[in-house]
Automatic annotation (TrEMBL):
It comes from the Eukaryota. It comes from Arctium lappa. This is Uncharacterized protein.
Length: 469
């Protein structure tokens, strides 16, 4: 078996080229880990935050953003200590989230974690595909508005844009593993700052231009156009969107596995988590607050494609193109653990199959594996097909966030910490950690119900393969 593959080689490090587990020496740093986190965190969720503020209002919107940010940061610190077991500095490495859960909590939790993690990753790629298609369509629409005026509808089907994004992901999906994603993450991070800054600047310009959009402490009021039941469901869905905006814990240990051994990985990962989550929370707050101030209760689900942002059209185009480039990279960051899981399982199941194990040199630079090429291509095609069938942006993001935030970001990190630290049952620390976990479970359940209701309403009026922007 080749050294540095996805599998432990057992090679002894005689020349300083390998780590303590026989794999090629890891070279990740605080900068690369922070870039991975920002790429994974600042995704399509940021685009829906002004809509979330319109549903929740100033008070609940800001409180939820800060609360989710703080809870995510706290549990990420706990999770970083689970990379090695039993000791967080010198223990045996857990290469991914599932291995950490298995080492600390056992087999049943291991299987439940896999279901949650890989379900989230698959759902996330579908969400990113939908978002990217909407952003590409927005470029065409803004140019149409600029040429023909806002009285013209300028609507178009999204199918071609979904296919374009899928084709680009087929190429990018051949990046073999997380260790080769540093450049992709850095570019994606730059793009995320780009479109967030453009959205913030356009919001400020709209506010400075004398916009008097109606806002309130509690969001869209109940009245003629909003029943109390609709208000409740929309608030629940908005909570799910905010949770989705912080959903990156599922790849935290995979990111940590790219770091150098010295200084200790858990210390670097904690600093990277602090940098990434703090940066994300500041950008989220600015985008949510300024977007809501600019558009008020009429804020659209994707604020870069909102009606008021089609001038200056060239700046809107740049912003939406930045979204697409960022999500091209974010797609790979979030799905690589799932790719690795399938390929490791297949390698162990059929170790003698040359189709699965053989690597071929391609023009002397790239290495091609036929199994990786074929199965990843099929995966991207299927994810794109699902995105064409269910192109419901806000409800889809909300459902992913609601169903996965609690188990992956809250429950497993807390339970592993209790197990590793041997916290005594019914002690003060044990009680408040359990209360935190249970509270997040209730919030996640309500958000999931709201998102499911939103999907049901959207499906009832949707024509198959007829998504229009």
């Amino acid at each position: 078996m080749q050294k540095g593959s996805s599998f432990t080689s057992g090679t002894v490090d005689f020349n300083g080229h390998f780590d303590d587990d026989g794999r090629i020496r890891r070279t990740g740093t605080l900068m690369s880990a922070s870039a991975h986190i920002i790429t994974a965190v600042i995704g399509s969720g940021v685009l829906s935050l002004s809509w979330c503020f319109a549903q929740l209002g100033w008070i609940a919107g800001i409180v939820l953003l800060v609360a989710f940010g703080f809870i995510t940061w706290f549990t990420c610190l706990l999770l970083a200590d689970c990379y090695r077991s039993p000791d967080p500095v010198t223990g045996t490495r857990n290469y991914n989230y599932m291995q950490a859960v298995k080492a600390n909590l056992g087999g049943l939790s291991y299987r439940l974690c896999g279901l949650s993690q890989y379900g989230t990753q698959v759902g996330g790629t579908i969400g990113y595909t939908i978002t990217s298609a909407i952003s590409m369509a927005a470029v065409k629409r803004s140019n149409c508005f600029h040429k023909h005026g806002h009285d013209k509808g300028c609507h178009s089907l999204n199918n071609s844009y979904l296919l374009i994004f899928g084709a680009m992901e087929i190429v990018l999906s051949q990046i073999p593993n997380f260790h080769k994603l540093s450049l992709v993450s850095i570019v994606a991070t730059i793009m995320s700052f780009g479109y967030s800054s453009i959205g913030i600047a356009l919001s400020i310009a709209k506010i400075a231009g004398g916009a008097h959009s109606k806002t309130s402490l509690t969001g869209i009021p109940v009245g003629q156009n909003m029943t109390s039941m609709d208000k409740m469901w929309n608030c629940f869905s908005a909570i799910g969107d905010v949770a989705f905006a912080y959903a990156f814990s599922l790849v935290l240990l995979e990111i940590q596995d790219t770091l150098k051994s010295s200084p200790p990985e858990n210390k670097v990962m904690k600093r990277a988590s602090t940098v990434g989550i703090a940066t994300s929370t500041v950008l989220y707050t600015l985008c949510g607050v300024l977007g809501y101030a600019a558009f008020g209760n009429d804020a659209s689900g994707n604020y870069l494609t909102g009606f008021g942002f089609y001038e200056p059209f060239w700046l809107v185009d740049i912003g939406n193109l930045c979204v697409v480039v960022h999500l091209l990279g974010a797609y790979q960051v979030i799905i690589q653990p799932f790719f690795a899981f399938v390929e490791i399982w297949s390698h162990n199941k059929w170790p003698e199959s040359r189709f699965i194990t053989k690597e071929y040199n391609f023009i002397g630079i790239y290495r091609i594996n036929l199994f990786r090429l074929s199965w990843r291509t099929v995966y991207v095609i299927l994810a794109t097909l699902v995105a064409m069938i269910f192109p419901f942006f806000n409800s889809f993001l909300g459902l992913i966030g609601a169903t996965t935030y609690w188990p992956l970001t809250v429950y497993f990190p807390i339970e592993m910490h209790i197990s590793k630290a041997k916290i005594e049952r019914n002690s003060f620390t044990w009680i408040w950690l359990k209360i935190l976990s249970f509270t997040c479970l209730i919030v996640a359940f309500l958000a999931a119900v709201g998102s499911i209701r939103g999907l049901v309403v959207s499906v009832s009026t949707f024509e198959l393969f007829h998504s229009v922007s």
